[in-house]
Design brief:
Elements (H helix, E strand, L loop, with lengths): L36 H8 L8 H9 L6 E2 L5 E2 L2 H17 L3 H13 L18 E2 H7 L4 H9 L10 E2 L3 H13 L4 H27 L3 H27 L2
Antiparallel strand pairs: 1-2, 3-4
Helix pairs in contact: 5-6, 8-9
Length: 242
Amino acid sequence: MAALSAVPLPEPAGTTPAASVSGTWPHALSHDAHLRVSDVLAQVSQEFPALTSSKLRFLDSNGLVTPVRTPSGYRQYSPADVERLRFVLRQQRDHYRPLSVIADYLAQLDAGLLHEPVSLHEVTHREPLLATSELASNASASLELVDELTAAAIIAQTSPGRYERSAVEIVVAAQAYVDAGGDLRALKNLVRAAQREAHEARELSRPARTKGNDAEADAQVRQRSDAAIAMFSAWVHAEVDR
């Protein structure tokens, strides 16, 4: 992201000067990050139908709308992040402003030097989280396994006793691994290897992502991750077939 200018910029339409404040704009909305990427897309897609997860990653990498990361590496957004996202997208769509100029506006909004009305539409809607028992039931797994996976940081609670629905697939795979004779220690080693490969895939795509080539970056991530999965499968099968 370009360095913020020290020169006062023309105010965005509808903005008025405000007193200096601390924190990031919008200050009046909740900064509790509990919305997944799919939640954000669902809430914003009616106004911005072209918005994709790749665009969200691009804005994150440029520091305009920055979600928090869960221990499992998932992005989560707050209602304040969603309103900030709408502001950025409106500036691009309605005023054709480049990211560097939008970043300057956001910096002034963060400092309270400008004021922008917020719109409270739909930011609190999301699919319900799963309780521990619901996660176990949906994954056809034992409660004990869910607790063990949580303690081992293989899955993470979004809030006390609550999990994202995306955890179901992981628990299904973990249960199948345990049923096949695997143990938790070996499973943690597999997860670490998968995390390293995911990290390497993201790093490989960083140059393209920095240039704004999200489609190319996504293709690189997919190619690298698919190749890693294929290599792991081929190696395991070759070893057991010796």
